[in-house]
Design goal:
Helices cover 27% and strands 27% of the residues. The chain has 147 residues and is α+β, with helices and mostly antiparallel strands. The protein has one domain. The chain has a five-stranded antiparallel beta sheet with strand order 4-1-5-6-7, with no helix packed on it. Strands 2-3 form a two-stranded antiparallel sheet. The protein is globular, with a radius of gyration of 19 Å.
């Protein structure tokens, strides 16, 4: 009995300290129809603005690639799966990638992504929070297939 008590106390302590699973509610994204998605590399400096005064911000640098049909489906699956979100929040946000959804060459939605802290900002707001491990892995595979 003396050996069971410390074990039971340890289990109770671990259970109490474990972080609960976060409930994630995602908004519909994108809300407008789109005809293409283009991925952009960003320099990670400054804020999260991909556009400034209707033009690309100075943060947009490097390569850009239009997503093919498979990559488009992978991105949509990622942003519409609540299991992609709910990870631990970090304080950095240095976006290195962005996805812009276009309809007839007009931007209708965009995502800016920091892979250092596993966080994404979106317009319109998707909701959610930091990426889960599963979400981070899915996003990494997608980015590797693009760039």
């Amino acid at each position: 009995m003396k050996q069971i008590f410390p074990t039971l106390c340890s289990l109770l302590l671990l259970t109490a300290c474990a972080s609960p699973t976060k409930e994630v509610k995602l908004n519909k994204f994108p809300v407008e129809e789109f005809s293409s998605i283009v991925a952009y590399q960003m320099n990670g400096e400054g804020d999260d603005a991909i556009f400034e005064n209707g033009e690309f911000s100075k943060m947009v640098t490097g390569k850009q690639r239009e997503l093919n049909a498979d990559q488009t489906m992978l991105l949509l699956d990622f942003v519409q799966d609540d299991k992609s979100f709910g990870g631990e929040v970090s304080n950095c946000f240095n976006p290195r990638h962005a996805f812009v959804f276009y309809n007839d060459n007009r931007p209708v939605a965009h995502l800016t992504i920091c892979t250092e802290c596993n966080w994404m900002k979106s317009t319109p707001d998707l909701g959610g929070s930091a990426f889960t491990r599963k979400g981070s892995i899915r996003l990494s595979h997608l980015l590797e297939s693009i760039f």
